[in-house]
User: Fold this.
Amino acid sequence: MKALAIVVVLTTLAPAADLRIGLVGTDTSHVTAFTKILNDPMAPDHVPGARVIAAYKGGSPDLPESRDRIEKFTRELQDQWQVKIVSSIDELARSVDAVLLTSVDGRVHLSQARAVIAAHKPLFIDKPLASTLEDAREIARLAKEANVPWFSSSSLRFGGVSALRTTDLSGALTWGPGPLEEHHHLDLAWYAIHPIEMLYAIMGTGCEEVTRTSTPDADIITGRWKDGRIGTVRASRPYSDYGAVVYRKNPKSQTSEALTKVNDGYAPLVREIVQFFQTGHPPVPNDETLEIFAFMDAAQRSKESGGKPARLR
Assistant:
């Protein structure tokens, strides 16, 4: 009887290539922080699966936070991380799989997002999504028409506050910095977006009416949800720590729980961004992001009316 030779061939799957990420707007410290987290495998908070390879500078000459910092961050991207600087968003889109829109100025986000959406690239838009509610809604409309996945979020949403969200919630209070910027019509979008995003991470959607009390030192923004819950944000100037208190329903008394050590690092957000680019599923529903802007729009109208309640549009 002839012996049969059996050959077993072992194969290993090659690891999937990292996603190629492009940056639109190099005028914020977020671009160097995000790039280090993605491109440095030795970083303690390294997030694998994607690399920043190219960037479009952008920039807003009338905004000091952009004009005075863009060259510094651009040089760091080039010299430390070998990121290629390109001359247009169209050129960027041809060389990448997905885009981080990181321009510090929310006023330019609609025009820049329009170019990315036209190239059909998945898109993360750093805070603020836009400078007006109308621009935010137009970004969402364009992306929906083109079937381009997108999301926008403050990093503070992923800093631990979501763990406070439960079904027996009767209300919440969040706080954080609230410096203003004169060029942004929705003045809360510039920085108070952080504690507002924290409030929505806890409360979810459903706010109907907003009242805002504004002083030189702080804003108190109180929202009334359609189910009777009350959510409040304190935005302090110039800066403050972040924190949250939630109030839970109880037959005998209200119980509360506080979170005063909020993780304000970027790695949790970057991890969500990479997963989003891999799956196309946003970790924050687009409708919730748009309601956050409707909340800030109502707060702006309340401020302009001297503190009268304003309904969400």
Q: What stands out?
A: The chain has two domains: 19-152, 156-311. The domain at 156-311 is CATH 3.30.360.10 (Dihydrodipicolinate Reductase; domain 2).
